[in-house]
Amino acid sequence: MTSQEREPGELPVVAVLGASGFVGSAVTAALARLPVRLRAVARRPSGVPGGEPGRTDVRTADLTRAGEVADAVAGANAVIHLVTHSGGWRAAENDPSSRAVNVGIMENLCEVLRRDRGESPAPLVVYAGAASQIGLPPERPIDGSEPDHPGTAYDHHKLAAERLLKEATAAGAVRGASLRLPTVFGHVAAPYAADRGVVAFMIRRALAGEPLTLWHDGTVKRDLVHVEDVAQAFVAALDHPDALAGGHWLLGAGRGDPLGDVCRTVSELVAARLGKPPVPVVSVAPPESAPATDFRSVTIDSSSFRSVTGWRPRIPLRVALERTVAALAEAHAT
């Protein structure tokens, strides 16, 4: 962990931007167990399970305002930037406010840290990028060496924010690293942290007794990683600022799981929990708005990040699915 502006024995300050979100809630829960002073910043109040009052500072802020960004990160030794527009990739296509969140916050953050740069080591900034930034993936595992040709506005935003961070790193204002996330899924016990991804969507459909629909024949693969494992990747990054700075690093399990198999497992697990027959898994015609990347398999080779940090996903896929089904079933019943 960086020692910027702290005395020997003083706990480092880690500011988490987007702390109330899906990944943010998991990251703050993981950090609350560590010897750090945790600053959880979000648009809405975010509880931190297990956070000690003397070491946990929960703040609300509109991070599209540069002044509020400056307050949020003042004196921080490390910043974890997890903020993304709540509407996801679909909103980015049509909502002009998406760029202010997806790119504008990084612009503000880099400007603030560049302006406030002191003599001590530059703060570490760990950003949540997306594996989808490359655009259409090749027919092989991706490892981060591929050229980027983003195909959606959301991925253009992600890439633009990542480039801003790399530029600020090259200028010496920060030590920035982008962790490009795979398909993250799971459940966290936080009021504003619902998982809106494909796995949670299918589980909720199965709980409602609705068929699970695929826009393809089910052989398209996704690299699925549980949100708690992803949170541990951000924790691992904090211990290797200089080795990671200036780069983008892919996270993944390295499997590539066929979505048809995942949906059938979800249907089976939900049926067993409810004591009902499994819902069918069927193929349907895709909507015209479906991006081409939805029909291309993704498997991620994260060996570069693993070699630096030692991180790897530890929760097996079926166990992760069982946990997620159990949590969403309980929420569905209340």
UniProtKB/TrEMBL annotation:
- Tell me, what's a Pfam family for it? Epimerase
Where the record annotates domain NAD-dependent epimerase/dehydratase, the positions are: 14-252
Bilayer-crossing regions: 12-34
SUPFAM superfamilies (alphabetical):
NAD(P)-binding Rossmann-fold domains
Gene3D superfamilies of this UniProt entry?
Answer: NAD(P)-binding Rossmann-like Domain (3.40.50.720)
Q: Which domain of life is it from?
A: Bacteria
Q: Which UniProt keywords apply?
A: Membrane, Transmembrane, Transmembrane helix
Fetch the InterPro entries from UniProt: Epimerase_deHydtase, Lipid_A_modif_metabolic_enz, NAD(P)-bd_dom_sf
Kindly give the PANTHER family that the UniProt entry links to this protein.
Answer: BIFUNCTIONAL POLYMYXIN RESISTANCE PROTEIN ARNA, UDP-D-APIOSE_UDP-D-XYLOSE SYNTHASE 2
Q: What is this protein called?
A: Oxidoreductase
Q: Which organism is it from?
A: Streptomyces scopuliridis RB72
